[in-house]
Structures are given as C-alpha cells and as structure tokens.
Amino acid sequence: MSDSPTHAVNPLPPAVIVLFLIIVIGEAYIAGAEARLWGSIDARIGLIRQFSFMPEGFERAMSAGLWIPELFWRMLTYPFVHGSLMQAVFASVFILALGKFVGEVLGNFAVVAIFFSSAIFAALD
Which of 22, 41, 46, 115 is deepest in the core (most CB within 10 A)? Predict the structure, then answer.
C-alpha cells in the first residue's frame, strides 16, 4: 500500500480553477440578482449586453474604420457569458475536463493561451 494520500477529486491546474471560478462567480451573481438579493432581475441580459461579442457590430465597426477597444475586449469576455445555467454547467464541465488534460501536458500558460486564442478565432469566424 502506498503512503501517498488519495484525493477525492483529481488536482486541477491553477489556470483551470481560475477559468472555472470566473464562470461560477458570474452565475452566482445572476442567481443572486434573480433572487432579488442584489442587482436587477434581468442580470443575465445585462451581462450579455455588456460582455458578449456581436459579430455584426464588429463587422460594421471594422468596415467603417472604427477601432473601438470595447469590441476587442468582448472577444475575451464572451466565453464567460452564458444564456442559461445549463449552458454554463456544460461550459464548466468542458473547461474542467479539457483544461485538466491540457494543463497536465502543456502547463498553465498553455491553458490560458489556448482558451483565449480559441475564443478570439471563434469570434472572428
């Protein structure tokens, strides 16, 4: 029998935990707002309006020659905005599973780089 302790949950790389917690904090904020503890009842819609990426608006701005920093910032924030709790749960499961694999093989920096570069390329697709 080995002396190493067994973990109830396999250890996760820190980058994966941070990405997961960002989603959990956003959903906790929405749950609290919907329970009328803070914010407004339409918190999810407000977050979608504030942080989601809108391809049509981005294309219009680029074709007009407008380089608005907010449009580029939204390429990094939209992966954390979800239309429903179930969508957030599925995103979290994929981040935990794939992030653990990538983090163990390539490291924390690779997890963050792959996550955000794939978000940017998906937004531009």
Answer: 115
